[in-house]
Design brief:
Length: 308
């Protein structure tokens, strides 16, 4: 506790032998962060530049990739600073802000995937009505809702946590997630109930909607001609792979927090790193390789680079 400035600092206790391997950690994480930014923004720029990619499906993909970069930027700069610092600490207010961004952007990913599932459903199951349903206004409303709804819900949780008394100043992690609740002296019943409601609205409902939508697409595609089945496979498979990947990593994160001290420190660090390393790189790779139009433009881009 800093009495002069009245700032409460939290010790991030999730690092493993950071003093011994600080330079190795720093180089690896900096390289990955640069790759995340370059890979995601390459595809975003391709979607921005090429008119044939100015369709709702590709706009939603661009939004998802931008969300991944924001998610990474919330974590990586602070991690890089921690690796080069003698003490791995964070002020409680900054910790709450990181928690806010971590969960609001994570929830936005579920909602964006739900919107993408709806877009695929309309495209495949109601192709004649697609232009009238997926208008620019509809796309804008979906995008705004995907970011605004989680932001409002998580903001309420953060406000509830601001004035709560802390009895523990050591957080078992390398960044601020649900583990911050273990710092509080008492558990708030109201906050717990609102937290459950938030999870249901921003994660469970979108997940169930996605499963329902893709089930409908699968049934209709199976009953349709070969071209419809091919279109469904080409456009839906990347979304499903991203959904499975993100859902598994979210499940890992929840398990780590719930198990707490029962989980070995090294194993907890490795699984936590999967959440921030694997998924932000997985998205652009999947969409770059599996989406036919994006893949075509990527090949042209790399061919031009080789010629130059």
């Amino acid at each position: 506790m800093d009495d002069e400035l009245n700032i409460t600092y939290i010790t991030l206790d999730g690092h493993v032998e950071v003093h011994k391997y600080r330079y190795l950690y720093f180089v690896i994480m900096l390289t990955v962060y640069i790759l995340i930014i370059c890979c995601n923004f390459t595809i975003v720029c391709l979607i921005w530049i090429h008119n044939n990619l100015h369709e709702p499906m590709y706009i939603f993909i661009a939004a998802l990739l931008i969300n991944s970069v924001l998610f990474s930027t919330n974590i990586y700069p602070k991690l890089l600073i921690d690796f080069m610092s003698e003490k791995q600490i964070i002020s409680y207010s900054t910790c709450l802000f990181q928690f806010f961004l971590f969960h609001s952007l994570g929830s936005s990913e579920f909602l964006l995937l739900a919107v993408m599932a709806y877009d695929r459903y309309v495209s495949i199951c109601k192709p004649l009505q697609y232009p009238t349903i997926m208008t620019k206004t509809t796309v804008s409303i979906f995008l705004c809702s995907a970011w605004v709804v989680p932001t409002c819900h998580i903001a309420v949780l953060v406000i509830m946590s601001v004035d709560m008394k802390l009895c523990n100043l050591t957080l078992r992690g390398i960044f601020c997630n649900n583990s911050i609740y273990n710092l509080h002296c008492v558990s708030s019943r109201v906050r717990s109930i609102f937290g459950v409601i938030t999870v249901i609205i921003t994660a469970l409902f979108p997940l169930l909607f996605i499963l329902f939508t893709y089930t409908r697409i699968l049934i209709i595609s199976y009953q349709s001609c070969r071209n419809v089945r091919k279109k469904a496979a080409q456009t839906c498979l990347p979304h499903l792979l991203v959904l499975i990947s993100f859902s598994c990593l979210c499940a890992y994160d929840i398990i780590i927090v719930r198990l707490g001290s029962e989980f070995p420190k090294t194993a907890r660090l490795i699984i936590t790193l999967q959440v921030i390393l694997y998924h932000p790189l997985f998205n652009p790779i999947i969409y770059g390789l599996k989406m036919k139009e994006i893949s075509k433009h990527l090949k042209k881009l790399f061919c031009q680079t080789k010629v130059m």
